[in-house]
Design goal:
The chain has 10 helices and 4 strands. It has 249 residues and is mainly alpha-helical.
């Protein structure tokens, strides 16, 4: 965990240095959102480091592991080396990466639904689509299909609720939240496949969190220009290396 203290804060005034730590890699691209988490830190990835990763600049002729890991000239080194992100759910191409930042979100209004609400809505759409597919030979009439869907979307949902809503002691007796969850579902069953293909109800209701390939090609920036490796300067620790020529200045 990286904690940043602002200049003038009580932590800094009491002796804290206010040090800002920058960790390179995909992890710096993640954002926070009150209604979705699609990635998390993969702390176990640090176990993939070899002992030389701790201090690759130690004397290669000296096989003493203690010297390799504790040499006073070890240089730039971090316990976060090799830590990365892993997805916790399907992330469509072009979608932002969101992880739990520890922020305390306000879920007291219907403007902000919880991640579980979107997950429950997606599960419900999957079940409804499965039902429609299994009885497609009986639901050839669009009016009949729409009527069955309306029954699930309005009547059944109003009676049984959703898993997350039912166990939420702060919201379970406030029907306006259940109404907000219902509005996550499309008006027509014909829209269910496209919503699920996009990644679910969150993406469908928050299109600003995703961009298509043409937009990325025009506005995006590649991140493969720099990589981390052992510095060529003895006892300097790890350093940054360019993968292609960089124009001077």
């Amino acid at each position: 965990e990286v904690v940043l203290y602002r200049k003038g804060s009580d932590e800094v005034k009491s002796g804290g240095g206010g040090l800002v730590v920058a960790i390179p890699g995909v992890g710096v691209l993640s954002s926070g959102h009150p209604s979705i988490n699609n990635a998390e830190w993969n702390d176990k990835s640090v176990l993939h480091r070899t002992i030389n990763d701790n201090n690759d600049n130690a004397d290669e002729d000296n096989n003493d592991e203690n010297i390799r890991t504790s040499h006073p000239g070890r240089g730039a080194y971090t316990h976060y080396y090799n830590v990365t992100l892993q997805s916790t759910t399907f992330i469509p191409a072009g979608m932002q990466i969101f992880q739990n930042t520890g922020a305390q979100w306000d879920y007291t209004t219907v403007k902000t639904l919880k991640p579980k609400d979107y997950q429950d809505a997606d599960k419900l759409l999957h079940k409804i689509q499965t039902f429609i597919d299994q009885h497609a030979h009986q639901l050839t009439d669009p009016k009949q299909r729409n009527g069955i869907y309306k029954f699930f979307r309005e009547d059944v949902l109003a009676i049984i609720g959703t898993e997350g809503f039912n166990i939420d002691t702060e919201r379970k007796y406030d029907t306006k939240f259940l109404d907000a969850i219902q509005k996550l579902l499309p008006e027509s069953p014909d829209d269910i496949p496209s919503i699920l293909e996009r990644g679910g109800t969150f993406q469908a209701n928050h299109p600003e969190t995703s961009h298509d390939l043409p937009w990325l090609q025009e506005n995006g920036q590649c991140l493969d220009g720099v990589y981390s490796n052992t510095s060529t300067v003895k006892y300097a620790g790890r350093g940054a290396f360019a993968t292609r020529d960089v124009v001077e200045g």
